[in-house]
Amino acid sequence: SSGINAEYGRKEIYKYDAPFTLYAMSWSNRPDKKYRLALGSFIEEYSNKVQIIQLTDEENGEFKVKGSFDHPYPTTKILWIPDTKGVCPDLLATSGDYLRIWKVSESTGEVKLESLLNNNKNSDFCAPLTSFDWNELDPNLVGTSSIDTTCTIWGLETGQAIGRIDNNSVTGQVRTQLIAHDKEVFDIAFSRAGGGRDIFASVGADGSVRMFDLRHLEHSTIIYEDSQQQPLLRLCWNKQDPNYLATMATDGLEVIILDVRVPCTPVATLKNHTACVNGIAWAPHSSCHICSAADDQQALIWDIQQMPRPIDDPILAYRADGEINQVQWAAGQPDWIAICYNQSMEILRV
Question: What residues pair up with 293 in beta bridges, in sequence order?
Fold first, then answer.
């Protein structure tokens, strides 16, 4: 297919070529900033970059760089504040050596560091952060995961923008830190279950998925353990049905779908990739669609409503011009999925 929807004359794919290899990526959630993304470089040295880009010309498919800032080490993850109404300051967060909160100026578009959150008060070295999640229900809660086996839940004071004048800086306090796994923790994600504030899960090098409740941190629930004890790299909660989550193992060719009501046994395994899976993203608006992306250059969209019957084939497949290392489904624009490969970022209309 040519990627053009002839009936409407709409382009189905827009591409941006960055001046560096891309890894982390995030869609902006603000309703007044459509088609805006933040992209993180992957350069194997100290000095890295984050770019903010926006599709400004749909006719010609042109992305404009709206802002850019230096970042120490590659960002392991980038997230915009989960503010779908546009009432909070225009913030984004990055993880790497530390968790950093950045603010985009309403007037100039300049980006400045608001807060560096460091939980290693007593040591000379830092334990890098592998990932983090920003609570959608309460944007003052951020959870980070670290190679030091812990997860930290931060309480932010993001301040509300008053009119157009917003001089409030962002501060953060450690709400709680817990040893989450026996080895490194690779990902953390809040669940929408039980009010959407207190329940989160993590995955790590010990091959387990563990679920926690901020109200009862003295115990956790192991939802799944990899039979080969392969490290689990990512986890993603279903956006519409909090009973389901997806995970994947290091160098794994499949996406594992779990149901928290039936621990320890995958409710489905999505198997069509021919090289290791690098990313998973649930549809923001549907409980039965999920996208996976892999080193086989494919992004696959699956319909899982037949579960627990086997899901044999995806309903949509897209082949990129390189190994796809990242996929994100836009919460505010559910017709669009973004992927990264090499130095390119593409948004695909689904």
Answer: 279, 299
